[in-house]
Amino acid sequence: MSTKPQAIETEFNQRPIGSDHPLTVENAIEGDMLERKGFAKNVADIIYRSDLERSLSISIEGAWGSGKTSILAMISSFLKDHEDPPIIVNYNPWLVGDRDYLLRSFLNKLAKEIGKTDYFGKAKKVADAMERYSGAFDVIKLIPDTDPCASIGKSVIGTIGKIFGDYFNSKHMNIESQKERVESSLRDFKKRIVIFVDDMDRLFPADVYEMIRIIKAVGDLPSITYVIAWDRRYIEEALNKSSVPMSTKYLDKIVQMRLPVPALSLSSKEKLLEECVERAMDPAAFVEYFDKGHLRLNYMMWLLIYKLVEQPRDVVRLFDLVSAIEPSLRKEVVFSDIIGLSMLMMKGASVFELLKSKPSAFVGKLYIEDEHDGCQGVAHPEDKGSIEEIDRACKECVDSKLIRDLVGFLFPYIVGGSRYHDKSIFTISNGCICHSNRLLVALQSGVFGNVVSLDIVRRYIRNPGERLQIIERLTSDNCMEFMQRLGDELYFDEPMEAEFIEELFISIAESIDSRVYAKKTKLNRLLGVDPVVVAVDVIVKLLGRLQDREGFYDYRDFSRKVVQDEGAITFAHWILLFSQDKLKDMYSGNGPLFVELEDLDGVSKVFIGNLLKRAD
Predict the structure, then answer these.
(1) How far is the CA of 398 from the CAs of 61, 310, 395, 571, in angstroms?
(2) Own/partner long-range contacts of 387-393 (Cβ < 8 Å, ≥24 apart)
(3) How far apart are CA 426 and CA 479, in angstroms?
(4) 91 membership: H or E segment, kind and range
């Protein structure tokens, strides 16, 4: 059985994630938590005040995930509730996929939606005119520029050119005359048509340019209002790649009214965060498992997270991510730092990649050899190069200054210069990822199936009755890490009697003879680490900490006890081997773990007796 903590089986495990879907027309108004109903109502009013004799283009401009599609749904809902609702056409060019088919699919969609209505037969007249207009483009393969007749996208080749040109100039196929018929039928129809165009910022640059030309050149028709949702920066960049000069001014010629998506207010962020927490998070995640955990969470949210979540989708995806990884880190890592790491994954990808590939840059040394400086797993950077690497990674992020502040908050001992350094230092607990052992568990959670839970390590230390069962559940993949964690986790700042500690050390020594460590020894290759070497190293360091606490401790007494313990044969043999004078001088790794010469005979006889019992 794995020692990795499993998600707690409660009703909260069944809560949905990935629920960053936009609002629909049916639930848009009542489902608005971001206080955007007023904005959508104003746009709907503008549409109804527009002149039916002309076309109108309105762009709703915002970054990806800012809620543009939900705003379109709200505008549509207000329009449908009007006493004289317009014909509404929803067109998504991204679903078409073929640039050569964009024009025809657009006109056919328009004709189809208009044809569904019946206003004294005039709707059919408009639909028929639209279909002929579309057919003309399809036959001659014309791709219009800002002037519909300015260019032919697919050249006519060879001897058929003159025949094709004559056919193009005939009355039936003249593009301008077909457009005039559509305009005439629309004026006679006297019905407002609103076309919602979404997902243009998902198109390739050439398709973006094509779609904009369609709206302006082909679709510049009376009675029609376009409401287009896009990311302005992406659209301008796409136009630049299509060699359109002065892309911003170009868009101003196409779109009469450009409206930015309203920024998220503080109250909107609060409502959305509360909704996401209620939907995705188990309340147990908010229990204060570490000292000052709630205060650290408050600082993290107010000073950093609220500023980094700019779009509604940011909030939803952040807590979908947190809800996925928090159960495996509960009681292991303070909740604030779980959120901070999740934000780095979302908005600081270059920093997170560096954190995964070189965690020592953020916390110093990673192993049980660390000097602890009064706090578990905290060390200083080994070189200035690590700080420079972190700074470079931060600068690659869009919100580079905020990401740098977040990194400084999470790792205040290494990364200086954060505006919130003092608040981080004040709220540090042993659950923070600035401690190397917590960072390693956090990084491995959900990635490596054999990660060792610090909760399991603590249970082994504090509950003698569970020790054998815990060892039996280890695997050859995680048993060495477990032994290392014992060295990282055990400090003597809580009341533990020396006898209890000695018993714990004996248990560690005995564990080397367990099935899993015996198997690990056999599996070791040439460069594999022998489990007994790690166990000796751990116990030596722990004995040093015990001596620091007690002021004096008789190491020789422990050595004699463990050598005579019938359950610690492998560990005892190691100590006896290096207790011989010559070998003891050559090998200092055992430190105080050796038996003095005058005791060697007696304890060796006990060891041999234990070995014979084991053989029987």
Answers:
(1) 19, 12, 8, 54
(2) 387/361, 387/414, 387/415, 389/354, 389/358, 389/361, 390/351, 390/354, 390/361, 390/362, 390/415, 393/348, 393/350, 393/351, 393/353, 393/354
(3) 35
(4) strand 87-91
User: What single letter denotes the amino acid at residue 549?
Assistant: R
Q: What percent of the chain is modeled with pLDDT above 70?
A: 80
What lies within 8 Å, CB to CB, of 447 at 6+ separation is none
Tokens of 348: 């600081």
d(CA 184, CA 379): 78
C-alpha triplet 62, 64, 68: angle, nearest 5°: 50
Q: What letter does residue 196 receive in the DSSP assignment?
A: E
Identify the residue with better confidence: 17 or 434: 434
- The secondary structure element, H or E, covering residue 184 is helix 175-189
Do the Cβ atoms of 291 and 307 come closer than 8 Å? Answer: no
CA 295 to chain centre: 24
Cβ neighbours for 576, distance < 8 A, ≥ 6 positions apart: 563, 595, 600, 603, 604, 607
- pLDDT value of position 201: 87
Task: Give the pLDDT confidence score for residue 57 in this predicted structure.
Answer: 93
Phi-psi region of 251 (alpha: psi -120 to 50; beta: other; left: phi over 0): alpha
Conformational region of residue 350, where left means phi above 0, alpha means psi within -120 to 50, and beta covers everything else: alpha
Neighbours of 417 (CB within 10 A): 11
First-last CA distance in the chain: 30
DSSP, residue by residue, 62-76: --TTSSHHHHHHHHH
d(CA 163, CA 438) in angstroms, rounded, equals 78
- Tell me the DSSP string of 561-616: HHHT-TT-HHHHHHHHHTTSHHHHHH--TTTT----HHHHHHHHHHHHHHHHHHH-
pLDDT tens per residue across span 398-427: 899 999 999 999 999 888 777 888 899 999
145-170: pLDDT as tens digits: 434 333 333 333 333 344 444 444 55
DSSP letter assigned to residue 330:
T
Are 158 and 197 in contact by the 8 Å Cβ rule? The answer is no
Give the whole-angstrom CA distance, residue 73 versus residue 21. 12
- The Cα 482–Cα 471 span in angstroms is 9
Local confidence band at 13 (pLDDT 50, 70, 90 cut-offs): very low
Residue 239 CA to chain centroid, in angstroms? Answer: 30
Helix/strand/coil for 193: strand
Query: What contacts 384, CB < 8 A, 6 or more positions away?
Result: none
What phi and psi values does residue 172 have, to the nearest 5 degrees?
A: -65, -35
